[in-house]
Specification:
This protein is α/β, with parallel strands linked by helices. It has a single domain, classed as Ribonuclease H-like superfamily/Ribonuclease H (Nucleotidyltransferase, domain 5, 2-Layer Sandwich). The chain has a five-stranded mixed sheet with strand order 3-2-1-4-5, with helices on both faces. Helix 1 runs parallel beside helix 3. The longest helix is centred in the middle third of the chain and has 18 residues. It is globular.
C-alpha cells in the first residue's frame, strides 16, 4: 500500500484584493517534504489565491503521478464548496472551482479543514511570496 500524501495549500492577499500568492506543500505522512512552491499571482482576493493554490497543487500532484491524496487547508469556504455543501457564486471563483473539481478526478482524495497552527509553514510561504511580488 502506498503512503498517504498530504497536500497543504494556502493563499495570501495583502489588502484583499491586493498583491497575492498561492502556495502548497506536498509531503509524506512522515513529514518528509516532497515538493513546495509559492507562486505570485498578481492582484487578487484571498479566495482566488486559495483556489489557485489548490489548482497548482493538484497539477503538481498529477505531474508527480500521485494517486491518493489528503488535501488540507484552513479555508472553510474552499472545503465546503469542494464538498458541495456551499454553492459557488463568485464569478472569479467559478472557473477555478471547475478546474479543481476536474483535476480531482485523477485522485482518490479527501479534503479537511485544519487549524491555522497546522497551516503555519504553507501560510508563511504564501505570505512571503505575496510580499516579494508586491
Amino acid at each position: 500500500m502506498s503512503e498517504k500524501i498530504l497536500i497543504y495549500f494556502d493563499g495570501s492577499s495583502i489588502g484583499n484584493p491586493g498583491p497575492s500568492a498561492s502556495a502548497y506543500i506536498i509531503q509524506k505522512a512522515s513529514g518528509e517534504v516532497m515538493q513546495e512552491e509559492g507562486i505570485f499571482i498578481g492582484e487578487a482576493t484571498n479566495n482566488v489565491a486559495e483556489y489557485n493554490a489548490l489548482v497548482f497543487a493538484l497539477e503538481k500532484a498529477i505531474e508527480m503521478k500521485l494517486k491518493e491524496i489528503e488535501l488540507r487547508t484552513d479555508s472553510e469556504l474552499v472545503v465546503n464548496q469542494i464538498l458541495g455543501k456551499y454553492r459557488v457564486k463568485a464569478e472569479k471563483i467559478i472557473p477555478l472551482f471547475k478546474k479543481a473539481k476536474s483535476l480531482l478526478r485523477n485522485f482518490k482524495w479527501e479534503i479537511k479543514k485544519v487549524s491555522r497552527k497546522e497551516m503555519k509553514k504553507v501560510d508563511q510561504l504564501a505570505f512571503a511570496t505575496a510580499k516579494a511580488g508586491e
